[in-house]
Design goal:
The protein is mostly beta strands. The protein has no helices and eleven strands. The chain is about 0% helix and about 50% strand.
Length: about 130
């Protein structure tokens, strides 16, 4: 089993910034891609950002492109999501996810493509 623990969520005013972290522990894979998703009340879970094992490839949802940055530190088994210029519509529970991969440059955008999930961290952006 792999355990994922997110942190860094909170309440911030519109235009502010937050940095989420997701630390993996337990049965960590030799290679794994990671992603961030979010779910607002009454809505389906949606893709936010993804990063390959190498860290060289990233992909973002259009709604966050240019404002959010995903990165990772493989030595610490941790992925980050830097969120700038936050908007009230960014309010949601944010989840990180992990998928074991053979491809070091691959990333994934579908929630069904991931094997393990964190418990989520709440991000609330006030107007």
């Amino acid at each position: 089993q792999v355990q994922l623990v997110e942190s860094g969520g909170g309440l911030v005013q519109a235009g502010g910034s937050l940095r989420l972290s997701c630390a993996a522990s337990g049965r960590t894979f030799s290679r794994y891609a990671m992603g961030w998703f979010r779910q607002a009340p009454g809505k389906e879970r949606e893709f936010v950002a993804a990063i390959s094992w190498s860290g060289g490839n990233t992909y973002y949802a259009n709604s966050v492109k240019g404002r959010f940055t995903i990165s990772r530190d493989n030595a610490k088994n941790t992925v980050y999501l830097q969120m700038n210029s936050l908007k009230p519509e960014d309010t949601a529970v944010y989840y990180c996810a992990v998928r074991r991969v053979e491809c070091g440059s691959c990333y994934y955008v579908g929630p069904f493509q991931y094997d393990y999930w964190g418990q989520g961290t709440q991000v609330t952006v006030s107007s």
